[in-house]
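Input.
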Amino acid sequence: MKVKSVLSGIFAAVLIFSGCSLNSKQILAKRIKHMQESSGNPVTIEEIKDAINKYDAEAVELQRKNAKIGLWYKILGTRYIDKKMYGEALKCFEKALEFYPDNANLYYYVGVCAGYMSHAALDFEAQGTVGKKQRYLELAENSYLRAIQIDDRLTTALYGLGILYVFELDESSKAIPYLERYLDIETRSIDGMFVLARAYYSNYEFDKAVALYDKIIATTKSAEKKADAEANKKVVLDASYGM
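Output.
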């Protein structure tokens, strides 16, 4: 019952403060205008100081509430991801970005959700040559890039972008620098090595691909992954010999 009441309070607050389409800056501007009007449009230095003293606490409280709303949208979005409800999660992260436009993790989550939504996209309102699937993929790419622009060591976004380029967009050459940077940070990531080796192979950099598969074979404790690496290495060597 306690959890239910807390959630009810959260949703009530979200409804109260997000019922209109105004973003946080517009809400603040509207409140400032109201403050000016209710305090007689102060003009002199003393009048402005009095208005500041009167409404400073209210402005701080408004900012605090807006910050909480953004956080609640982020939390709600992650709950939707847990339930694999990626469309609803995407809406939540879009709202959260209105309050936290420079949060790298929010852009990463948008990229994840957009990537999943591209798999289920049916464009009922297709116009021109760009369908809904492609728009979701572009959103995922742009979101990962924005996340990395904000935090160039955000490994989740680096890896997500690598996956997107290699397996979704068939642009392995673009994936390579991001995956290399990812492995510079996550030096023992076997999954990262597999994806980068695939990118090298697709980009005809066979020697680099073989070297990574050898590293996987020497590093992993998983018999299955070792067997996969050995099989993939043979494919690469066969391709290189056939050139």
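Confidence is low (pLDDT under 50) at residues 1-22.
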